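Fig. S4 source data, part A: sequence.
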Amino acid sequence: MDTGLKISQWLTFKICRLRFKLIRKSILIEKNSGDAKEKQQQYAYLFTIDQVNGQIKRLLEKLELQQPASFHQCIVNRTTMQKHSIRELPENVLDSKIIAPRFVSALGYDVPEVIQYGVKAEELRFSPGIVIKPVDSCTSKGVYIYHNPEFIYEVKTNKRFNTEDSLKTKLNDYINLNNEDSWITEKYIYGEDGRAPVDLKFYSFYGEVPLIVEVMREPDTKYCYWNANREQIDVGKKKEHSFTGDGFEESHLEIIKKISLEIPAPFTRIDFLKGRDGFFFGEFTSYPGGNHRFMQKYDTQLGHEYLKAEARLQQDLIDGKPFETYKKFC
């Protein structure tokens, strides 16, 4: 049976039950009360606004607990909204490898140095300690870390190459498959001991960050999930690739909250890299992959976070919040 229908039936039953109680109490008043004045007093007590409001409030609280909020469905709805929108939604505008770093830098936070932008594969200058990625890709496909000519790492597959010719072959394969030949190179952010940096993915709901994913890239890709209280949690995803991470600092969380409040969207995943030289912006992601794989408990929790964020954002827009930095770059 449809969940919405179940809730409707449940609420109808509760209202009918409340009406029955009022009728029964009315009969008891008629049966047991003495003079008209006493009856009037009891009826006045029975039907006070506070009492009725109290009953309604309790019903609504129970209804809220039963409400079938779903993070996955919120993301699907937002995707549908984009299809019917004349302009790109704010989170999609920021899902850009050139706009996003400028936006974050303008807010006062560190971003990796861009070395080349919008060049063809044949124009790429290979030098130690750079990241090569397609301009228009929003995943790890086509992303390579060039440590040196004998150590080239493909992020998507965790494969390593030891010649530039192997890298050029992979770049050409990407171009032929996607019909895109526009690349960006950035200075690579090294982690401790020269290893890959810790990748922290913050699920941000307009000022609130209830979920953080810590990703370790070397020697194999593994995942650790945290709540805002820095407690490790099991959300039902990637159990076979889990590990116990080091987590994040409170100062990191505050940075993410501030950035999130500058984006006029209910949800954006904000990725940062925790390197040996600091905390650097990675990317914005509006529709994170695998969002349908959360266990129901967390899908519902994140769904409620999404709806509450939407309500806070709408109120700020009504109150005239300017979002000046966003408007400047987007």
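Fig. S4 source data, part B ends here. The CA atoms of residues 171 and 177 lie 10 Å apart.
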